[in-house]
Amino acid sequence: MSRSGHRRSRSLLWRVFASYLVVVAVATVGALVAGEAFAPFLLERHMRSMGPMMGHGADPMAAMTADLAAAYRSALTQSLAWAAVVATAAAAIVAWSVTRRVVGPLADLRAASAAIATGNYDRRLDADAPGEIGDLAGSFNTMAEALEQGEAIRRQLLSDLSHELRTPLSNLRGYLEALEDGVFTLDAATSAALRRQVERLERLVADLSLLTGLEAGEVPVVAAPVDLAALVGDSAAAFRARFEERGVELAVDAPVGLDVRADANRTAQVLENLLDNALRHTPAGGRVAVLSRPDGAFARVEVRDTGPGVPEALREAIFRRLYRGDPARAAAQGEGSGIGLTIARELVVRQGGDIWVEDAGGPAAGETHENAPAGGGGACFVFTLPRADAVAA
């Protein structure tokens, strides 16, 4: 903590302590001033009243001494009484002012907290208050902003999720009504269509469950040395039939001898999501290339396609849950859950890497212009993982 921040964090303590010193000082000064003002006046008044008594009595000195002592005690008592009244009034005014300055922001905090508890997340406090009160107000505002953003994300997620669930459910209902009305017969084609909708629902639920577990830290990620070339080759082989069915070429360039420290199953899931995304956005006759290469202390994996690409303004948004850049086009190009890229990001980050998307124009490392994706466009999804030898070193 900086010296100014340290002074700021302790300022309220010293301000409250100083306020009590001020109250004591005001009371003391008030008592002294009142005593000095009232005691001489009262004593002098009494001395004047003793004038006629000086010439009478057997022992005027003894009487005067006794009366003077009584007058002194009376004057002192009265002056102290007036001093106490003045000091109490002054101390009350100062204490009220200080207490109001301290309790006022706390009352605002209590009211704002009650508003937040009822779902009113737009309440904010004055963060310019001195000392810890200002720090507390700033922390409260940060918390309120986070809650407001979280609530907005929650509402958007529920809206997107209801939309994602509505589509396959509507399709299933349409098929069932058509079967009941005799429009369709339960043949192999209809059964396959129904199965696809059920599988889409299952995939969406499974992906949401996985993503929730990842964000809650409940999904274990066990890192170990992994042969990246074998991992990329196995993932591509599992998708090759689907690529051939769609008429999309799938190329792999993964040099051997490049080991990463990662969870093989989770990394395969990342590749699966990226390959599925590339296949859904690459038209027939296009090409998808999977490449890996060392990149310093990391290994770099690229999934490049010849699809429409991703605009720069959307390259962060596409990793959000259930994000759809173009819902109509997404529905026409495939039935992804909408959170595959979000899962890929969570898995890569959990393994100490990073993931992003860039343009696929031009050849990548290890490619020539002859075997680079044709068309000069498309998207290139890149993720990195720590190299096993760099981690060991």
SSE order and pairing:
Elements: H1 3-49, H2 60-117, H3 131-181, H4 188-215, E1 224-227, H5 228-246, E2 249-253, E3 259-262, H6 264-281, E4 287-295, E5 298-305, H7 327-333, H8 340-350, E6 355-359, E7 379-386, H9 388-392
Parallel strand pairs: 2-4
Antiparallel strand pairs: 1-3, 4-5, 5-7, 6-7
Helix pairs in contact: 1-2, 1-3, 2-3, 3-4, 4-8, 5-6, 6-8
Overview in brief:
It is built from 9 helices and 7 strands.
Q: How would you explain this protein's 3D organization?
A:
With 393 residues, the protein is an alpha+beta fold. It folds into three domains: 3-118, no CATH class; 135-215, Orthogonal Bundle (Helix Hairpins); 224-392, Heat Shock Protein 90. It has nine helices and seven strands. Helix 6 packs antiparallel against helix 8. The protein starts with a helix and ends with a helix. Mean pLDDT is 77; it is low at 1-10, 326-334 and 362-376.
Which key phrases capture this entry?
393 residues; Heat Shock Protein 90; disordered N terminus; 5-stranded mixed beta sheet; 3 domains; alpha+beta
Low-confidence stretches: 1-10, 326-334, 362-376
The largest sheet is: 5 strands, mixed
Average pLDDT score: 77
What is the CATH homology-level superfamily of the largest domain?
Histidine kinase-like ATPase, C-terminal domain
Structurally, how many domains make up the residues? 3
Quaternary structure:
single chain
Shape descriptor: elongated
SS content category: alpha+beta
Strand order of the biggest β-sheet: 2-4-5-7-6
| Strand composition percent | 5-15%
Number of beta-strand segments: 7
What is the count of helical runs? 9
Topology-level CATH name of the largest domain:
Heat Shock Protein 90
Question: Between the first and last Cα atoms, what is the distance in angstroms?
Answer: 34 Å
